[in-house]
Design goal:
alpha+beta; 2 helices
């Protein structure tokens, strides 16, 4: 099994989720994350003064899939999260040693 982690622009989240559901991926986790990168961070204007927020808001998806599906999931994310501008995000694919379903105790691909 593989874990596909993607850090994407928050504005592209809905597009990516819809596309993942279209290829049969319905289980994943997501969270709001902040980070630094090549793109300039957001500026916040408060009472006429502009402040550098110092971070870039993004959404992180964590998806565990069968080995054979990892490439398809990564390509789907790229196709639907890409704007062509600096700051589109990153995808990390890693091996998963063990995956367990708490409710039933099933393990590995049976738990997906």
């Amino acid at each position: 099994m593989k874990k596909v982690e993607a850090i994407i622009r928050t504005i592209k989240y809905e597009d990516v989720v819809e596309a993942l559901e279209g290829i049969g991926i319905r289980f994943f986790s997501y969270s709001e994350v902040k980070g630094h990168g090549m793109e300039k961070s957001d500026e916040i204007k408060y009472r006429g003064v502009v402040y550098d927020a110092g971070y870039l808001p993004r959404t992180k998806l964590s998806i565990v899939v069968k080995d054979a599906d990892a490439e398809k999931v990564a390509k789907t994310i790229i196709e639907n999260a890409q704007t062509g501008k600096i700051g589109d995000g990153k995808i990390i694919v890693t091996d998963v040693e063990q995956f367990l379903r708490i409710r039933t105790g099933e393990s590995s691909e049976d738990a997906l």
